[in-house]
Structure to design on (343 residues):
C-alpha cells in the first residue's frame, strides 16, 4: 500500500530502510525530474541529474531525520546534483527541443494557447537571474514553504521572502516588456 | 512602511506566510493604494500562469534505470544501519607477538609498580604483595589471524 503522506512515508523508511525506496521514488520522480529540467533546460541532463538524485537518496535513506521535511531533504539533494551538472556542462538556452510527450494531452486549440502562454512564461523565467528563477521554481512549481526553501537554498526565511518578491517583480517587468513589444509589432503591421 | 515594503508583504500573503496582524495592516494599506493592489493582481496572475502549466513528467526510462540499480544494490547490500559500538564493547585485535609483548610490559610494569609502592625491604611472602600480584596479572584474550582456534591466556 502506498503511504498517503510524507509523514507515513518517513515512518515506513524508518521501519523498512531502503525497502521503502520504491514508494518514495514514485511519489517524487515527476517533481524531481521537472525541477531538474526547469533549471537545466536539457532533457537528458535533467534525466541524469534526477537519476543521480534518487541513487543518492537510496544510499542515504538511513540519514533521514524524523523531524526533517522530506521534500526539503529531497530537493536539497536534487539541487546539489543540478549544480554539479551545471558545473560539468554548459546549459542550453534553447527550449525548442522539448519532447512533446512530456506534456499532458489537450485539445489542439487548447494546446496551442496553453503552449504559447507556457512558452512566454518559460521565456520570462529563463530571462531571470538564476537565483530568482530557482526561488520561483521551488515556490510556484514545487510549492515548498519559505522554511523549506530556506533549508534547500541555505538562506534565512526573510532572505527567501525578499528574494521571492524581487523575483516576481522582475518577472512581471519582463513579461510587461515582452507583451508591450509584441503589441508595438502588431500595431506596425 | 513604504509601498515597496507593502508589495513584499503582499507577496508573502499570497504564499500564506504572513501573520494575521501583518495581513490586517497590509489590507488596510491596500484599501487606499491602487498601485499596490495592481502589483498584487499582477503577482496573482503570474502565479496562476506558472501553476496552470501542464506538469512535466519524468520519462519512463528513468524508472527502469533508477529502480534496477536500486534493486541490484538491495540484493547484495544488507538493509541495516551501522551503529557504532561503545568503547567497552569494542575488541582490540593485534598479532600474537604484539599481544605477548603488551602482556609482558603489563606484568613487569605491575611488578615494578608494586615493589615501588610496598618498598624493597618487604619480603615477597607478605600477603599484601601477593594480593597485588594476583590483581595485576591481566586476563588477555588473544584471537589469532590464522585458522587456529581462539587461545585464551591467563
Amino acid at each position: 500500500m502506498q503511504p498517503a503522506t510524507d509523514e507515513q512515508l518517513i515512518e515506513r523508511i524508518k521501519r523498512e530502510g531502503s525497502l521503502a525506496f520504491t514508494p518514495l521514488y514514485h511519489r517524487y520522480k515527476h517533481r524531481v525530474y521537472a525541477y531538474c529540467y526547469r533549471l537545466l533546460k536539457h532533457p537528458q541532463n535533467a534525466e541524469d541529474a534526477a537519476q543521480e538524485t534518487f541513487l543518492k537518496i537510496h544510499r542515504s535513506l538511513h540519514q533521514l531525520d524524523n523531524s526533517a521535511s522530506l521534500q526539503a531533504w529531497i530537493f536539497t539533494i536534487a539541487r546539489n546534483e543540478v549544480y554539479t551538472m551545471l558545473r560539468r556542462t554548459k546549459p542550453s538556452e534553447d527550449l525548442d527541443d522539448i519532447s512533446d510527450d512530456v506534456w499532458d494531452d489537450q485539445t489542439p486549440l487548447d494546446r496551442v494557447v496553453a503552449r504559447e502562454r507556457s512558452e512566454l512564461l518559460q521565456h520570462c523565467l529563463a530571462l531571470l537571474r538564476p537565483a530568482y528563477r530557482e526561488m520561483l521554481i521551488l515556490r510556484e512549481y514545487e510549492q515548498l514553504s519559505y522554511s523549506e526553501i530556506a533549508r534547500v537554498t541555505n538562506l534565512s526565511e526573510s532572505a527567501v521572502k525578499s528574494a521571492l518578491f524581487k523575483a516576481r517583480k522582475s518577472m512581471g517587468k519582463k513579461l510587461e516588456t515582452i507583451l508591450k513589444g509584441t503589441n508595438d509589432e502588431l500595431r506596425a503591421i | 512602511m513604504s509601498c515597496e515594503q507593502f508589495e513584499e508583504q503582499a507577496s508573502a500573503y499570497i504564499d500564506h506566510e504572513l501573520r494575521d496582524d501583518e495581513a490586517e495592516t497590509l489590507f488596510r494599506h491596500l484599501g487606499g493604494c491602487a498601485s499596490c493592489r495592481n502589483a498584487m493582481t499582477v503577482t496573482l496572475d503570474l502565479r496562476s500562469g506558472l501553476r496552470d502549466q501542464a506538469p512535466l513528467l519524468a520519462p519512463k526510462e528513468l524508472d527502469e534505470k533508477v529502480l534496477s540499480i536500486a534493486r541490484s544494490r538491495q540484493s547484495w547490500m544488507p538493509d541495516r544501519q551501522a551503529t557504532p559500538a561503545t568503547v567497552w564493547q569494542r575488541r582490540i585485535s593485534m598479532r600474537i607477538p604484539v599481544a605477548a609483548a603488551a602482556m609482558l610490559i603489563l606484568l613487569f610494569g605491575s611488578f615494578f609498580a608494586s615493589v615501588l609502592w610496598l618498598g624493597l625491604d618487604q619480603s615477597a611472602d607478605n600477603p599484601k604483595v601477593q594480593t597485588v600480584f594476583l590483581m595485576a596479572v591481566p586476563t588477555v584474550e588473544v584471537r589469532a589471524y590464522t585458522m587456529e582456534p581462539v587461545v585464551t591466556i591467563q
User: Anything to note?
Assistant: The mean pLDDT of chain A is 82.
